[in-house]
């Protein structure tokens, strides 16, 4: 199961890919909800973006990677801006892989396959 915390625009593109490849997923609305659900569900993968309400994606990733129950869950971060600082912050917070928006379907499939396989 994949836990997702993305804006509607990005989620609509990801959702299509997930459904075509029959991945089970749950979507959450905020960084705080993401942390709660991740501890409870222990998903195979988390997909998030920086701009989350209540707790941004970088802070959420840092907290996920520092908690014993969630530290081994791979995190795929989707960055809306092609700023090297944003990619660096995503990696520094613990993201396992960073994709730039707009994303291509094959990039998403490849990233999900790689992160779930490596788990």
UniProtKB/TrEMBL annotation:
Domain of life: Bacteria
Domain Response regulatory: 1-116
Alphabetized UniProt keyword annotations: Phosphoprotein
Coiled coil: none
Pfam families assigned to the protein according to its UniProt record, in alphabetical order: Response_reg
Classification via InterPro entries: Bact_response_regulator (IPR050595), CheY-like_superfamily (IPR011006), Sig_transdc_resp-reg_receiver (IPR001789)
Gene3D superfamilies: 3.40.50.2300
GO biological process: phosphorelay signal transduction system
Acyltransferase listed as a keyword: no
PROSITE patterns, alphabetized: RESPONSE_REGULATORY
Protein name: Chemotaxis protein CheY
